[in-house]
UniProtKB/TrEMBL annotation:
InterPro entries: Class_V-like_SAM-MTase (IPR053105), SET_dom (IPR001214), SET_dom_sf (IPR046341). Residues 68-212 form the SET domain. Coiled coil: none annotated. This is SET domain-containing protein.
Length: 212
């Protein structure tokens, strides 16, 4: 890490220690396992004062140059859109995030189409709640509000505001895995769903994950 005393570095170390999770580092393969969705990590955000070379900026590339990296296409009119990669992707690479509006379950149920396209961001994560209650990198007056914020069910709805991630295909043998990563803070607004390559992916291959 470029600056081991910065708030991001301190937060990342505590996530690793308390939640037993390896860090997501710049230009390093992410280690995956079958419980990846629940293994939350922390990365530097765009407002971090460290340079672009900081090892904790593991998500710096996922929002850049999507037109150069991916192709959105539709093979048949009756089928949905798909996404293929224009470039080789190595196993363990953060590929893209799933962007959209952060909404509660009640708001999601109002739109019939929204629920089937949305992904769950927060699901009353008790391990995370207990961790945040004792995290010494946070101001004490933030602990209770944050614990309350994560003791609920929250989704990312991509219908009105989203990115190429909303066109990813479903597969029972996917080449992407979902991981939740805090970027630059620990509020629900700082948490992102990120797709990580679980194998080497050749240029031209369709990108997919397991909706289940």
């Amino acid at each position: 890490m470029e600056n081991p005393d910065c708030e991001c570095a301190i937060a990342s170390k505590q996530f690793q220690k308390k939640l037993k999770i390896p860090p997501v580092l710049r230009k390093k393969a992410v280690k995956l396992d079958e419980n990846q969705y629940w293994r939350i990590q922390f990365c530097c955000g765009p407002k971090c004062q460290c340079s672009s070379e900081c090892s904790l900026k593991g998500l710096d590339e996922i929002d850049k140059d999507h037109n150069k990296k991916f192709e959105v296409y539709r093979e048949e009119e009756k089928m949905g859109f798909c996404v293929s990669t224009k470039k080789y992707i190595a196993k363990g690479t953060p590929v893209m995030s799933f962007n959209g509006e952060i909404v509660g379950k009640r708001a999601l149920e109002k739109g019939s189409d929204a629920e089937q396209y949305s992904l769950k961001l927060i699901d009353q994560d008790q391990a995370l709640i207990e961790f945040l209650k004792t995290a010494n990198f946070l101001a004490k007056n933030l602990l209770r509000p944050l614990a309350t914020a994560f003791d609920r069910v929250v989704f990312i709805n991509p219908l009105k505001y989203g990115n190429v991630g909303r066109f990813l295909s479903h597969s029972c043998r996917p080449n992407l895995e979902m991981m939740r990563i805090f970027q630059g803070g620990v509020s629900p607004g700082h948490m992102r769903i990120v797709f990580i390559a679980n194998c080497n992916i050749k240029a031209g291959e369709n990108l997919s994950f397991d909706y289940g």
